[in-house]
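Q: Predict the bound structure with copper (II) ion.
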Amino acid sequence: MDEKRIVRSELRWVFVVAAAVTLMLVVIVATTLANALHPPSNVETIDPATLHIAGEFTEANLGTQENADGTVTVRLIATQYAFVPRCLPVPEGRPVSIRVTSPDVIHGFIVAGTNANTMVVPGFVAELTTEFDEPGDHLMPCHEYCGLGHSNMWAVLRVVPEEEWIPDANGRMTCELVP
Ligand SMILES: [Cu+2]
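A: Predicted complex:
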């Protein structure tokens, strides 16, 4: 092969790679702008061995909490092989912060049909803030293989219309309180 043909071939591949990289960048920017899809950025550490004993993720503190400013915080644990609690009520069309962590292995958190999606890594608190606009139950399957019971690990996020959103006196809301 003469040198000119080799150079032409290399230039063709440069073009192919540049086109592939450009396409990926366009997809990232387009989904960011259109669907608010983005990588989680919260780096917050926590001791996975003492979650159940003290602090934010003790059993009594898990679940949905309405804050004084009307926003909502949901705390949950992803563990082999369940989400605790198993049903998460959230109000329709209001900012919801979801905080989730794991005491054992890596799990995945996703709410079907929404942009809520993050890995749950032991030792870290995964946090995402979003709004849910479609009332009803949304499936929350674990989407990181976590062991033999992985396929049975799922929960439900229940988007509740404003008129049915009646938290208790402490601002706590459960799926049992949805009329
Ligand atoms: Cu899993």
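A: Residues 107, 142, 144-146, 150, 153 surround copper (II) ion (CB under 6 Å).
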